[in-house]
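TA notes, week 10

Several of you asked for a full example with nothing omitted. So below is the full record: structure tokens for the whole chain, then the designed sequence directly under it. When grading your own attempts, check the secondary structure regions first.
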């Protein structure tokens, strides 16, 4: 992902890619030759470069908090690859440190700009489905590509290892929950979830799902799995006027969407074109536009923390075998209990 970010930054008008850092001599040499930039062989050296205002963190997830806090202490603004950290508590600590230092932190939730999500947003905005009361959002596939994606491939399938912060909840949860919260525009009321370690790893989950009830009455299913030989739909939205269904599987297959509307004996089906490039790269243009307009970066702390709280709730629900009440501020309740005891 570090190389992906470097290439996108270099290609975005309004941004200048000044330098990169890598502890791998091979990676450092390759990116230096490709993009003709300064490359440091340690992250500490990069943080000492006073000419750089923004730092992008694309280390393994388990190191996000450590390097984020060091970068904040050095006065750097940050873009952190998702997930921002291993837990809500770690994420909150990063944002708190940024507020105290007076720097900005945003998170690379790039799938906000994906073609499928943009389409779903448009359908809701245009009220095509009527009152939407049920949303199902899934990534379901079966591929060694998920486990081995990265520079080291299957020689170091880090997504299957707990030490690196692997697992499909950390991988897809930030995207799916972030999108869901944007669509519902309502706080979550309760969640029941489960994680499975069935095929690819005994250390981390290769399948998770969660049922979420929101305060506005909308219910949702969020699910990610690398165990589905038959993929389930990427999106399924139920409304009072119609239903939207989008093909699932790997992202390259999210190119078939239909809306079916019926009343008594009348039935109408609409086919929607989603045949655009997956991963639009929309994050960095939106990032530049926000800075040029004097606005905050496009992904805010409150949004990131709300999704992180739902991810933590999935783990808690799985460990306790029951639904988790999200209607109270659990951190405030914990502090109150500590004080009274």
């Amino acid at each position: 992902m570090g190389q992906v970010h470097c290439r996108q930054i270099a290609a975005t008008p309004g941004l200048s890619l000044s330098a990169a850092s890598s502890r791998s001599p091979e990676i450092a040499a390759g990116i230096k030759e490709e993009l003709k930039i300064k490359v440091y062989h340690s992250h500490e050296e990069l943080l000492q470069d006073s000419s750089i205002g923004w730092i992008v963190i694309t280390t393994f997830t388990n190191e996000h908090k450590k390097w984020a806090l060091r970068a904040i202490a050095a006065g750097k603004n940050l873009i952190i690859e998702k997930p921002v950290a291993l837990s809500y508590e770690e994420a909150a600590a990063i944002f708190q440190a940024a507020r105290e230092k007076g720097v900005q932190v945003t998170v690379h939730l790039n799938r906000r700009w994906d073609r499928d999500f943009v389409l779903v947003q448009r359908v809701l905005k245009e009220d095509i489905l009527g009152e939407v009361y049920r949303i199902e959002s899934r990534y379901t596939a079966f591929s060694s590509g998920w486990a081995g994606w990265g520079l080291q491939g299957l020689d170091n399938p880090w997504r299957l290892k707990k030490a690196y912060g692997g697992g499909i909840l950390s991988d897809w949860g930030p995207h799916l929950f972030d999108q869901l919260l944007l669509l519902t525009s309502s706080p979550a009321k309760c969640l029941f979830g489960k994680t499975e370690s069935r095929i690819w790893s005994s250390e981390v989950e290769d399948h998770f799902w969660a049922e979420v009830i929101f305060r506005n009455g909308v219910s949702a299913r969020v699910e990610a799995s690398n165990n589905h030989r038959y993929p389930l739909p990427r999106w399924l939205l139920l409304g009072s006027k119609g239903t939207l269904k989008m093909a699932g599987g790997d992202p390259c297959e999210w190119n078939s969407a239909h809306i079916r509307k019926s009343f008594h004996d009348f039935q109408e089906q609409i086919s929607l074109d989603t045949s655009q490039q997956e991963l639009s790269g929309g994050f960095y243009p939106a990032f530049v536009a926000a800075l040029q307009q004097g606005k905050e970066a496009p992904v805010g702390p409150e949004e990131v923390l709300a999704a992180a709280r739902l991810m933590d709730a999935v783990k808690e629900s799985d460990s306790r075998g029951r639904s988790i009440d999200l209607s109270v501020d659990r951190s405030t309740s914990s502090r109150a209990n500590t004080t009274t005891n």
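The two ends are 46 Å apart (CA to CA). Use that as a sanity check on your answer.
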